[in-house]
C-alpha cells in the first residue's frame, strides 16, 4: 500500500465502519508485500567477492608467481575464494603452444561458471595475468557472464619497463573505453613487476613493498566497483 492510498483511506475511515481485514490478515499481507519488494534471500551486499584468476601464456596456475599472487589477492580482497585453473594447452602437465586468446574463451567461461555455481550470489571478479587478463576481458563481454569487475595484471596493470604494452598506446585505448577503469603503473617494473635491485635501492623500498602498494590500488578500485554492482 503506497503513501497516497494510506492517506486516502485515513480521510474516509471516520465516516465508515471499520471494514479493514483482521490484524492477522494485515500481518500476512504485509509479509507478502515485503517479500515482493525485498531483495531475494540469497542477496547480501556484504558478501565477499569471488575471484577467478587466469594464468599467462608461459606458466600454469601452479607457478610460483601465480601461487604468490593468488594468496596476496585473497588477503587484499577478502575473497570468498580465489579460483585458479589451467587452460587446455597445459593439460596433463604438458606445456603446449598457447593458441590465440579467442580460442581460450570457452574453456575460461566453463571455469567461471563452475566457480559461480559453487558460490552463488557473490560478486564475480575476473583476474588475469598477461594473456589471462586479455581472455578475462573477452569473457566479461559475454552476456551469460555477470562480472562486477576485471583486474588485469601485466595488461594493463603493469610495469613501466614492460614492452608488451607501451603506456602511450594503452592510454589511447583507455580513453575509448566506456566503462570505469583505472591504471596503476609499477615504476621500473618488468612484465612480472620485478624491479632491479639498483632501482629499489635508489627508491629506498623493496620488492614486497612495491607489490603491496599495487595491491592497495587493486583493493581501492575493487571497493569502488563492487559498490556500483
Can you walk me through this structure?
The longest helix has 22 residues, at 207-228. Helix 3 (64-77) packs across helix 8 (207-228) and helix 4 packs across helix 5 (131-140). The chain is globular and about 50 Å long. 25% of the residues are buried. It has helices at residues 3-12, 23-37, 64-77, 105-118, 131-140, 167-176, 197-203, 207-228; strands at residues 50-54, 81-85, 124-129, 147-153, 158-159, 185-186. The protein is an alpha/beta fold.
Strand order of the largest sheet: 2-1-3-4
Count of helical regions: 8
Compute the average pLDDT: 81
- Oligomer kind: single chain
- Amino- and carboxy-terminal Cα gap: 29 Å
Largest sheet: 4 strands, parallel
Uncertain ranges: 1-45
Class from secondary-structure proportions? alpha/beta
3D shape: globular
Task: Tell me the number of strands.
Answer: 6
User: How much helical structure, as a percent, in the residues?
Assistant: 40-55%
The run of helices and strands is: HHEHEHEHEEHEHH
Name the beta content range: 5-15%
Q: Mind telling me the C-alpha Rg?
A: 25 Å
Give a summary of the structure in a few sentences.
By secondary structure, this protein is an alpha/beta fold. Helices cover 45% and strands 12% of the residues.
List keywords for this structure.
229 residues; alpha/beta; 8 helices; disordered N terminus
Write the layout of secondary structure elements.
Blueprint lengths: L2 H10 L10 H15 L12 E5 L9 H14 L3 E5 L19 H14 L5 E6 L1 H10 L6 E7 L4 E2 L7 H10 L8 E2 L10 H7 L3 H22 L1
Parallel strand pairs: 1-2, 1-3, 3-4, 5-6
Helix pairs in contact: 3-8, 4-5
